[in-house]
Amino acid sequence: MMSYLLQRVKSGSGYSPVKINQISLDESGEHMGVCSEDGKVQVFGLYSAEEFHETFDCPIKGVKILDMISKQRITNVPRDDISLRPDMYPCSLCWKDNLTLIIGWGNSVKICSVKERHASEIRDLPNRYVEIVFQFDTEFYISGLAPICDQLVILSYVKEIAEKTEVECCARPRLDIVQPLPESYEEISSDALTVRGFQENECRDYHLEYSEGESLFYIISPRDVVVAKERDQDDHIDWLLEKKKYEEALMAAEISQKTIKKHKILDIGLAYINHLVEKGEYDLAARKCQKILGKNTELWEFEVYKFKEIGQLKAISPYLPRRDPVLKPLIYEMVLHEFLESDYEGFATLIKEWPGDLYNNTIIVQAVVDHLKKDPQNRTLLRTLAELYTYDQRYGRALEIYLTLRHKDVFQLIHKHNLFSSIRDKIVLLMDFDSEKAVDMLLDNEDKISIDRVVEELENRPELQHLCRKPFPWTEIKASVFLGSVPGSQTPLSRSQTSLPRSLTFQGNQRNALDSNSWLQIRLRYSSGGEYLHKLFKRDHHKGQRYHEKQISLYAEYDRPNLLPFLRDSTHCPLEKALEICQQRNFVEETVYLLSRMGNSRSALKMIMEELQDVDKAIEFAKEQDDGELWEDLILYSIDKPRKIGDNECILPSIHYKNSYSNLKAFITGLLNNIGTHVDPILLIHRIKEGMEIPNLRDSLVKILQDYNLQILLREGCKKILVADSLSLLKKMHRTQMKGVLVDEENICESCLSPILPSGSSLKWFPSINSKLYMKQPNAAPKDTSPEPWNQQKNQGGMGEKEKYAEYERLGSSSPVSVKLSHTTFSHWPEKLWREKL
User: Fold this and answer.
1) Separation CA 422–CA 737 (nearest Å)
2) Would you kindly state where each structural domain of the chain is located, as residue ranges?
3) What residue spans carry the region label Disordered (predicted)?
4) Residue 52: CA atoms inside 13 Å, Cβ hemisphere, count?
5) How many angstroms separate the most distant Cα atoms in the chain?
6) Structure confidence by residue, pLDDT tens digits, 779-821
7) Beta pairing partners, 149
8) Are 60 and 76 in contact (CB under 8 A)?
9) What digits encode the pLDDT tens for the residues 163-195?
10) Phi and psi at residue 427, to the nearest 5°
């Protein structure tokens, strides 16, 4: 008998005259059990004279489970495969706990659970019963088994076919760890054991014992004893490091950092970094530094110098810590100099990403300036120098560089650091760079840069003061061509005559892309951008009023489409100056508007009719002015302008206007179609000469009649509404005038200026139908206090006082309103008269 340290504890012989099949120790290690092939079981003390023996039938045909407390047999678990010799394939038993028995026999495994029987089921049965919770078959024979957590350790006996002789032979025994399932199992691990003489051994020659407290497993063979123990995470990490699987070892250490005793995560991580550097994977090694080095500044600086020695500072630069921790400024300066010597773009990226307080800004600025002496036009270095000046709060120098480079961040820099005082003499540069952003910024900060200052700076650049067209040369002019008949010709121009399609694209550098004699109308499209005075006027029509005269010329020169809206919205521009400019440039629509605004409506109408030849615009103008003389002029002009409209189309020879009519209507036809709702059509019809040919006369007359009928219907409807409203208002006024009025001692008669009520009385007065005053106590019925003439009038067939009061109550209202009261009575009025008054 040997101890765990292979020291002899006890020895002896004579335990059994036949082969011993099983030896077992109790948990205390003080008793040993021995069973032999003759069915004899012996239990004796190792350190005492205790001994117990029992003889059972042989061979064993099953497993009997006994209750040692009640001395009753609970159940019998039979063998599954009776073809196997029990002496060659013995049964292996082990208790996982006091109530769970594991049985391995042949190639079958059963896990049995001992459970208490319900009191109602006991009767003559044992108090407990056994339930097989897991049962599965294996591909090998079982020489021994033991529990490990919720899994099983099985000592397997395997037979295999030899490749050369094709004869079945014994293979090396295996130690398998399996996960039991209800009807199968899952193999977790399998290790083949090397023991001497395994080729000659049988299944019964191997045994498995385990020490639960120390997690030790003993594999016993005829010639060897193998001790196995459960592998811990340190062993696993050792194996991973031995195989140079550093990443897996690092991950395993992080997962089990509370249980590992032999290894440290930092040591494994440093070994991993060194391994990557040796393999030449510098970027991955630098990336791992963030995770492994953490906030240890000494290790960071050590690794940076190591990367510098191998010339790989660029690899580690993106991963250097920038906040918590912060390394020495020398480290960051060393990296920046490395990039400045070989990679301007990388240098600029680091300057943009790194906070300016990580390094000595003055040293880096001087280094950049020295490099610019060699390459003064290098935009990357200039942009980076501007950023360094910004970090150093030298905003003026940064602004100069940004403007020189036309950098998009110039406006952000101005706003962020309030540099408006520095740009007073740089407005033109800002406008040249991005006029839209510059204008918005200047308008938003009028309190810092005045309008006068901006206009003064832009004095020599008038196109920047306004919304202007982009100058020529044009690379492409897109035009829509409208073809018509040549004046004096009876047939329209055909496509073959013009040699031009209906839609053209002209290439050229001149504004006049077509011959002025061509009978073509072209709509030219310009691109535009917003400028200062134009946007100032759009924001506030009055702020830049002193420049409105200047704006007239600017609009006329650079932005004619916005000239007319400007003239309409501005109340400060000189009309005479505007009229002069528009007449000089032959701006017809603008001239018409100015003439009408200056009161010269007849000249404006004449220009519309003669210059524009637009009957709709002329009629619209006459409607706006609502002047009978204008309608008279328009009618007289229309009488002379009927024109036959057939297949030929009338063409307007001007290139400046959008409203081109491919089918120009005659003036008189237009008047007949539109005049009916504003002027009596008879005035026009009487002036039409007999025999005059008028296009679409029938349709025009029908429209006049329809317009007339519509007017009649509208007037009748308006009359009904007016009468109904008048009657409703009259009734409302009558009810108001007939309401009672509460008076007191302070009320004075409007006629005699005497108090209406005697002092000390509190009476309520109501006017009667004939305007006499009735007096009654509050909430009391009116008392008939009328004089005799009224009663006489009643007797003569007139209305008595009670009837008149009832009539008053019917017509009047209970809520009093303020009316003027007078002592004057009208009792002498006949009833007919006061009814008419009513």
Assistant:
1) 76
2) 21-200
3) 777-806
4) 5
5) 164
6) 444 444 444 444 444 444 445 555 554 554 554 443 333 333 4
7) none
8) no
9) 777 788 889 999 999 999 888 899 988 889 989
10) -65, -40
